[in-house]
Amino acid sequence: MELDKMDENDWKYHGEGNKSLVVSHVQHARVLRLLKYSTEDAENSPKTTDQAFLHIQNIVDYSQNVMKPLLGEKFVHNGEAVKLPLDFVRQLSLKVQQERPENKGFGSHYKKWMIVLSLKRDVLVWITINQIDSSTSHRRLTFVYSFLSCVLQPKCGFLPASRHITKDIKRKVCRFCMHQHFKLANGKWKRLSRYCPLDLFSGNKQRMSLAIKNLIEEPQNNFNIFKGGECIYSCNDDADVLQDLDELAQHLRPYFLPSGSLLNRQQSSKVVLHELIQVIVSALLSSWDCPRSGQLRKTHLSEGRVTCEASLLHRDLLRNGNHCLPKDCVLDKILGTQMLDNLDIEGLSPLLKRVEQHLQMFPKERCRLQMDGPYNASFLEKVQNCPVEDDGSLEYAVGKVHQYRVAMTAKDCSIMVAIATCGEDDGLDQSLEIQTTKPRFTCSVSILDLDPKPYESISHQSRLDSKIVNHYLRRTQPNNQELDNLEELANQSLFLGRDRDGEDCTLVFHPV
Known about the structure:
The protein is α+β, with helices and mostly antiparallel strands.
C-alpha cells in the first residue's frame, strides 16, 4: 500500500472504544487506529508530531516488549506507527464522522470524545496502523475480514485475597458484578448483566457456557460479533433482546446448520447459538503449547478465588465444578498477568504515595524510573523481578506500581476468536481445529486492546474502587449510615465537574 496515494474512500468506520477509533480497508486486511482524547483533556494531547509519534511508539513498544512476552507470541500481534498524508487524514476524518453511530447502544460516552490530531501545514501525521501480512503466521487474523469473529472483554477473573483489603465483600463478590449495580444506578445501563468473569475463568465448561450465554444476552460493551468485517451484533440497550438474538441466529445459521435443515426458526436459533457458544468455549480452552493427543496440563485455582457470591449459577455447580484452566490457553495467560496485582488497589495506595513523594522532590527521576516508558526489556524486568516483600525501597514501590499497571491492561483487554469452517480456505493456517456436533471449524485466538495504563490513572482507580464497593454495600445493607457518608465523599472526590457521560463531542482537528 502506497501511503502517498491513500484514498479515504477505501476506508470505512469499523468501531471505537473509550481511547481509540478504528477504520478498516474495504479490500485489504488492514486497519488504522486513531487515538482519542477527552474534550476536557485536549490540552494534554500531543502538541507536535514528535510528541505524537513518541506517544504512539510507546503504545506499540508496550504491546511488543511487555505484553507479548507475558501473554504469549501466539496471542499478541503488533501494529506499527506510520506517517499518513495530511490531506488523507482530513478527508478521512470528515468521512468517518458521518459514519459514527449516534449511540449504537454503547452509552452517550461514545460521543463525548474527539479525535485529536496534532497537525502542522505540510507535515505528516503519525497514526497507528495494524497491517496483516498474509505471508506470515499472522495470516490467521484475516478471519476478522473473511469469516466470523467474536470479540469479548473477559474482565478480571479472580477475587483479591490481599491482607490490605478493608471491605470483606471484595473477597466474596467480584469487581464486575459490583460495578454492574453502580453503573445501573448512574444510568450507564438500563439492565444488569448476569455475566460473571469468574465463571468464564473457571475452566468448567458448563460455567463458561453460561457465562458466554449471559454475555450474548446482555453484551453491553463486552461482546461483539463481526461477519466479513461488518459488525452484526453488539450492544443495544433499548432493543428487544429476544428479537436481536433471533436475528443474530439467522446471520449465523449458514455456519452451524446444514442448508437442508428442517428445524423451524425458533428451534434453529437455539441450536445455532448453542453451537456458537461451544466453539467459543473450545477456542478459549485450547492449549497451544500442548500436543492435542497428550494430557493437558492444568492450572488449578484456589477455591476462594473462583466463586463469586453474586453469580446466579446453582450453588452445586459452583461447589462441585472443576476449577482449572489448561496451561497456556488464552485465559490462563490473561489470568496470570491479571494476578500481578496481588496487593489490590488498597495495598498499592501507600506505595503509590511513596513514588509520588519521591517524584515531587526529584521530578527528573520520572524518566529513570520509566513512569512513561520507554517500554523495553528494562521495564519488563522491573515487572517480572519485583521483590515479594516490601523492603521500604523506592525500587520496590515502583516495581509494584508497574505490576499494577500491567495487570490493569490484562483486566481490560479483549479476546478475538475468529472462526472459519474447515476447508473454506485451504491456504489458511489451521493452527486450531475444533470439532463440534456440526461442521468442523478452524479458529484463531488473539488478544487485543493492550495499551499501557497511565501512571496518573491509578489515583482515579483508587477512588472509583471505593465508590463501587460502598455503593454495593449500601445497596445490600441499606440502613448503614456510615456507608452513605463514605459514598457522598467518594462522589465529591470522583466527580469534581460535569459528568463526562453526558457530554457531546465532534470529530475535530487540534491545531498546533
